[in-house]
Fold these 2 entries.
Entry 1:
Amino acid sequence: MDKPCFELKGSLFTLTVLQLFEDNLSLLEKQLKERIKMAPGFFNHTPLVIDLHELPVDKQGLDFFELRELLLSLSIIPVGIKGAEKSIHTQLEAAGMAVLAESKTPWKKTSDTTKASEINEQKAEAKPEKETKETSTPSEEPTDTQAETKTATKVPTNGITNRATKIVKQTIRSGQQIYAPGGDLVVIGSVSTGAEILADGNIHVYGTLRGRALAGVQGNQRSSIFCHSLQAELISIAGIYLLSEDIVEDKIGASVQVYMENEKLQIESI
């Protein structure tokens, strides 16, 4: 008997999900191109799951051939469809789109299942939050200075003054996206799995970073990401990114700074 040349295994992967709210493919193309400009490296040959849960039933009969070709033209690889009505399964299969089975726990309830643990995290992080209020001013971030001091020789300052800083004093939950245009983003809380935070400047997370963090999205390679506990799905600076499986094991769960050096992301404990 010949030795088996393959083996089938089950596995879990972190995939980007495209949640559709409208069936307007022209508008989708326009908005996707705008997003790709912000982080071109992230979308290059990215596997993508298309979620129709939020798309009304009367709008689910869109042209899936055209949708598939649209994504491929943008170097995005459509893996399959979730949340589709049974009545269009044949249409999806004809377009070469896989129909993905639903998980036992609906997507909308996922964030609720982690709510208790996140509330505990916020309580644990209450002390740092109070310290931030007492020591910070509207235009200054003492914690930013403290974190950057340790790596000042590796990460020069951006050379931008009076930059706007967006401060979010809550946990960013699954499905949420927060963007700080023109400046830094400070999250006094955690970032849940499935959430996404973006900033033109630096990103600071005074909690656990489980979701995706994209700093320097307009191309600023001097931006950094700081977090108290790194458990991210993806981290990116100026379009250069690392996925969770690319992060070295001893940095997972650690308090770190992520910065770019020689066109590569560096992760340093702080």
Entry 2:
Amino acid sequence: MVPSRPAFVLHDHRRPSPHFDLRLEEDGVLRSWAVPRGLPTSSREDRLAIAVGDHDLDHLTYEDEHKSIADIGWWEDLGRTPKRRLLVLHGREASVRYALIDTGRDWLVHRTKDQPAP
């Protein structure tokens, strides 16, 4: 039996102010971060990610008039330490490697220089 792959979703959330929500399926819930400016598009920039409360798994495909799915797919855990999680998001159009870095106050999302082969 092949284990199921953990899901992720990136919500484009328009209220209370425009931002994105990154949600990773883990331990039966969606671990969540609000990412005000969205995921970084280059390795030369980091983006603020604010950890928010876990969400139920049924939130994975949730949409309404203020929230839409910007990307969805599965994610791969490439390793972690207490301060950093390295992962690949396998979305609808691309697979991108990121690091989530715990600064002690908030988190940063960093797009790594090394990326998976297309």
